[in-house]
Write a structure and sequence with these properties.
oxidoreductase; 2 domains; NAD binding; six-stranded parallel sheet; alpha/beta; 32% helix; EC 1.1.1.95; D-isomer_2_OHA_DH_cat_dom; elongated; D-isomer_DH_CS
């Protein structure tokens, strides 16, 4: 049994040996370009990928390939229909980063509400040292308690963020799934937006959610509200977000995701002149515990496939 890991960089500081258990050959590449993938998977039974793309053409040519393990939840880098037609099983990882992402989202909310970045910068600039009183109160500080959080995407992650938000004393509203009817306990997005102090996104990027939060949606949010996106780039229209921040309609925003990652071609959200905007480099998921869970789940997936089990199997 031969296995190849096409892009291990995000896990390279961890012990990958559980993935190689029971294999006759184990090959690891830190990264693979699209042009390298076909050659590198040739003759292998198992391919492990994070973001390396497996196209229909590549899968058709991979005559030995029997199993694809995606070390992530998202499957947009694998042509699932081509895998199905070729009889290649596909497994992914699920729920591994709930704690990591949820704490990152709450951190972003707290940084926005406490104006942490502004106060830290002020201290570095020597403004506290020259203050006329014992403290600095140059930027308005808000408490989470009593404020309303709107959540779009109420799966495991959205539910965990709601739980933490309630612990801070926040009121939580849940939007109906885009493109679906309003169910019990949820309200239509256009009804929810005018009520929120903070909007947090946790839905996948689909045709229904692409540019879901556009200029029209942002205009429905109250003046002085906040937006947090730790879901996917493309759910928020980036140009519209910049406009809402520059106009002062939004008091602040934070995003862990961009439409292109890494943003080699630039991005309007990376302009340092955009006010009250926090950008983190798609690392909300990346706690050590979450990444160790990815390795453990992938090892389980390989074992499950060998035993004919369907644990986390997404393509039969």
């Amino acid at each position: 049994m031969r296995a190849v890991f096409l892009d291990s960089t995000s896990l390279d500081d961890l012990d990958l040996s559980p993935l190689a258990a029971g294999l006759d050959e184990w090959v690891v590449y830190p990264a693979s370009t699209p042009e390298q993938v076909a050659e590198r998977i040739d003759g292998f039974d198992i391919v492990i990928t994070n973001k390396a793309i497996l196209t229909a053409e590549t899968l058709t040519q991979a005559k030995s390939l029997k199993l694809i393990c995606v070390v992530a939840t998202g499957l947009n880098n694998v042509d699932l229909e081509a895998a199905r037609q070729a009889g290649i099983a596909v497994y992914n990882c699920q729920g591994y980063g709930t704690g990591s992402v949820a704490q990152h989202v709450m951190m972003l909310m707290l940084v926005l509400h406490t104006r942490f970045a502004d106060y830290h910068r002020a201290v570095q600039q020597g403004r506290w040292q020259h203050a006329e009183q014992f403290c600095l109160l140059d930027f308005p500080i808000l408490e989470l308690s009593g404020r309303t959080l709107g959540i779009v995407g109420y799966g495991e992650l959205g539910a965990r963020v709601a739980e933490l938000a309630r612990a801070f004393g926040m009121r939580v509203l849940i939007a109906a799934r885009p493109g679906s009817e309003v169910a019990s306990g949820r309200i239509a997005l256009e009804e929810m937006l005018p009520q929120v102090d903070v909007l947090s996104l946790h839905c996948p990027l689909t045709e229904q959610t692409r540019n879901l939060i556009d200029a029209a949606a942002l205009s429905l949010m109250p003046k002085g509200s906040f937006l947090v996106n730790a879901a996917r780039g493309g759910i928020v229209n980036e140009a519209a977000l910049v406009d809402a921040l520059r106009s002062g309609h939004l008091a602040g925003a934070a995003t862990d995701v961009l439409t292109q990652e890494p943003p080699r071609d630039g991005n309007p959200l990376l302009d340092p002149s955009v006010p009250n905007l926090l950008v983190t480099p798609h690392n909300a998921w990346g706690s050590r515990q979450a990444r160790e869970a990815i390795i453990a789940q992938t090892a389980e997936n390989i074992s499950a496939w060998k035993q004919g089990q369907s644990l986390r199997r997404v393509v039969p």
